[in-house]
Amino acid sequence: QFSDTGSRKEHVKVTSESKPGFLERLSETSGGMLMGLVTFLLSFYVLFTNEGRALRTARSLDEGLSLVIPLDTIHSVSQQNEGRLVHLAGALSTSKPLFDPSYGLSIQAVKLKRNVEMYQWVEYEDSTEYEENGEIKKETKYSYNTEWKSEVVNSRNFDREIGHKNPSAMAVESFTAVSPNVQVGSFVLSKGLVDKIDDFKQLSLSNLEDPHADVTRGGDYFYHSENPRRPEVGDLRVSFFYAGLSGDDPHLGSADKVTVVARQRGNQLVAYHTKSGEVLQILYPGDLSVEEVFQKEHESNTMKTWALRAAGWLAMFVGISLMTRIFYTLVDWFPVVRDLVNIGLKAFAFCVASSLSLLTISLGWLFYRPLWALLIALLSVVPIVVAKSRVPPKKQQ
């Protein structure tokens, strides 16, 4: 079946295969068990190392807060602060503007990004499976639409390339230019600090002229197209983004201000290594006090810690589910029994994953906070106790 609605095209393909036998399903389950074992073991590593990392980071931040020295001025370098952790805030500055000569564009900023998109065919799949006459049938609906994409879409992988062929490369490439010398007052920022300046904003092109005869400006894009309103496959559009405005601009405003906490080395701001082995090299947009900077860092550490805890628990749950899947395979011929076993296996995986996750977290705290580690270890028994209490007692003989 084939239909064409504007630039969107669709067709449906139906494939069938014989229903897998018991041995074949058992073999697939065995492969899943191996993958589950790897995921299960990986979850222990994620959970255990995450706790140590979180506690080391918290200690490093506390150490940094107790040692940091707010600078009175950013326009002179004091030798008394050599090698010490300092806090300063000020406007960004760069020695030279960043250029893109191909489009006649320049801006005084820390970073300038050229983003190139090509109008291409994109394939989407929507599959459904059903059983019919003892066979497993898979109905796949393929739809094709033309869209602007930053990456080249390989049309050779399409189910139907005929009529949906994309160019193999873009005539114009994307790139990001970074200023080689970024300063706040008299202090030069290290590469690690410059990397943290990534709040990109789209650059308005309303004040620029068309750079070439074959390039047309429309809104905030340069189009390589005969008709930007009705682009064809292979046409390009180019947009620009900047981060860290480092000079006063009549259209964009004043230079961006940043707050930095780092080690002073001469007139450079570089990474500070704490006694816990962590690195302090902090940069935030805006003018923040010392307390505000370290509060944000503690909040970021907390969010990262809980995200990795959730990821570790999920990996353990999935691993246990895959390893116990064989019990479901053994009874999947019986619908009612199969559903009950499936519910029981998920409950088992949930309880065991919760208990083992808490136990692993407690081991991660053992070397740092033994009392909390003991409390969490005791808490890890709760899911098992709750699950056991749900089992009805045996009738007395």
From TrEMBL:
Cellular compartment(s): Endomembrane system; Endoplasmic reticulum membrane; Nucleus envelope
The residues the entry assigns to the signal sequence are: none
Where are the bilayer-spanning segments?
30-48, 306-328, 340-359, 371-391
Alphabetical keyword list: Endoplasmic reticulum, Membrane, Nucleus, Transmembrane, Transmembrane helix
Instruction: List the membrane topology term(s).
Output: Multi-pass membrane protein
Q: Name one Pfam family in it.
A: TMEM43
Q: Name one GO biological process term.
A: nuclear membrane organization
Q: Which cellular component terms (GO) are annotated to the entry? A: endoplasmic reticulum membrane; nuclear inner membrane
Q: Which family does it belong to?
A: Belongs to the TMEM43 family.
Protein name (database record):
TMM43 protein
What taxonomic lineage is listed for the species of origin? Answer: Eukaryota, Metazoa, Chordata, Craniata, Vertebrata
